[in-house]
């Protein structure tokens, strides 16, 4: 998902959002071996994002990767500025648990430790609040970001088929409408041949402050490009 | 909109929800002349609802009527028990204002005074929170009702075409999903020949705690009947 901020009609700075867990398979068994030490400066994934952000002079909301820290594993999103520096780091607050017998069982808390803090950061594409996937189910987080002046909320995600059809569209639009801001989501594409029972829903989107779909993908691989016009927020409010 | 509570699979007590402003046309010019003094016991509309509730042994969430009180006018919903007594009274909290040049202009606050209190009440069909129409746009009210143990929220409403298509479905489902309870709405039917520029959206619905549509109407006159199974709330949570 890429977006451009529009000021006075002319595209200026750009931003790119990646999906949840993009540096390795989303398999609870193998995730720990892909953990990277971000604070220790030993994260090849974040180093790559920093290099690209600096070279392209863009803001990157870097999806998430498993972060190893003090012997624990977090589901972590780094926001990187056009100077290549990490501007903020969000650790997924609400870990996903599902148990539908005969359909899907998934316990993220067996592997990850939950984060403790909301994350809001000023960037060249606006003031951004960060949530990771299941964080979108909690309206309080989005309301907190709104109260702190967020222009947009980015949710790197990986909804599955069970919750995707019922909730994905609804959650994105209601967070946008209830808080009168932009919501940007990025999901992996669906792999119909995946052996995992965690089949991805897809449908990365950019939603406007009135719930309008500005840009969206299907469930296949795609780059979604949309423009974020901050003046829409004031118009709506 | 009528609903039955289901306990152990057998329908027991029933409830009926009416629309916003059902005792007179929704015209700001003529509304004041239809105001009724509910507290003074001089409301023919509420008397009629009480008589029906007692005769049918049902709970009635009586939509809303213009209530005259101390020289002011409120948009007021009475909840009436199977004994015919008024159990609760909700005055619309968030008055509706819209001004889209060339499309629709509407200022409810020119006529009505806003209520000051949320309303939650125990009835034979469950613990009910009340909101009137534009009140549904405010997630805080629904969250307050959830925190006070509501099983369902009733929103007598009258959305128009401008906001209906964008927001009606979204608002009902997100209040239900975010708070894991039932949402019941009742709207007037659409009159395509109405001379007013306030054209009604319609689509009264009963929504379950996972956002599922249990029963719904189109924009024509209809009675919507659905069953509310309280055990679904615990299953979802």
TrEMBL record, chains A, B:
On the tree of life, the source organism's domain of life is Eukaryota
Q: What is this protein called?
A: Nit protein 2
Under Pfam families, the record lists: CN_hydrolase
Specify the species: Oryza sativa subsp. japonica (Rice)
Q: Which UniProt keywords apply?
A: Hydrolase
Q: Which InterPro entries match?
A: C-N_Hydrolase (IPR003010), C-N_Hydrolase_sf (IPR036526), Nit1/2_C-N_Hydrolase (IPR045254)
| GO MF term list | hydrolase activity, acting on carbon-nitrogen (but not peptide) bonds, in linear amides
The record, for CDD domains, names: nit
Residue ranges of every copy of the CN hydrolase domain listed in the record? 1-230
């Amino acid at each position: 998902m890429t977006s451009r901020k529009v000021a006075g009609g002319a595209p200026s700075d750009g931003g790119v959002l990646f999906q949840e867990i993009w540096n390795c398979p989303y398999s609870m068994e193998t995730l720990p071996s892909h953990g990277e030490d971000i604070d220790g400066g030993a994260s090849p994934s974040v180093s790559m994002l920093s290099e690209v952000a600096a070279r392209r002079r863009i803001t990157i909301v870097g999806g998430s990767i498993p972060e190893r820290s003090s012997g624990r594993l977090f589901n972590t999103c780094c926001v990187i500025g056009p100077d290549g520096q990490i501007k903020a780091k969000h650790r997924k607050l609400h870990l996903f648990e599902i148990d539908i017998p005969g359909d899907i069982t998934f316990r993220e808390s067996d592997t990850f430790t939950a984060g403790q803090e909301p994350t809001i950061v000023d960037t060249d594409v606006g003031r951004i609040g960060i949530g990771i996937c299941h964080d979108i189910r909690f309206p309080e987080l989005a309301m907190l970001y709104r109260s702190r002046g967020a222009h947009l909320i980015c949710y790197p995600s990986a909804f599955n088929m069970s919750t995707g059809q019922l909730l994905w569209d609804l959650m994105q639009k209601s967070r946008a409408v209830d808080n009168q801001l932009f919501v940007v989501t990025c999901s992996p594409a669906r792999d119909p041949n995946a052996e995992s029972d965690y089949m991805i829903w897809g449908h990365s989107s950019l939603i406007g402050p009135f719930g309008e779909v500005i840009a969206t993908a299907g469930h296949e691989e795609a780059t979604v490009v949309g423009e974020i016009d901050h003046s829409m927020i004031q118009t709506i409010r």
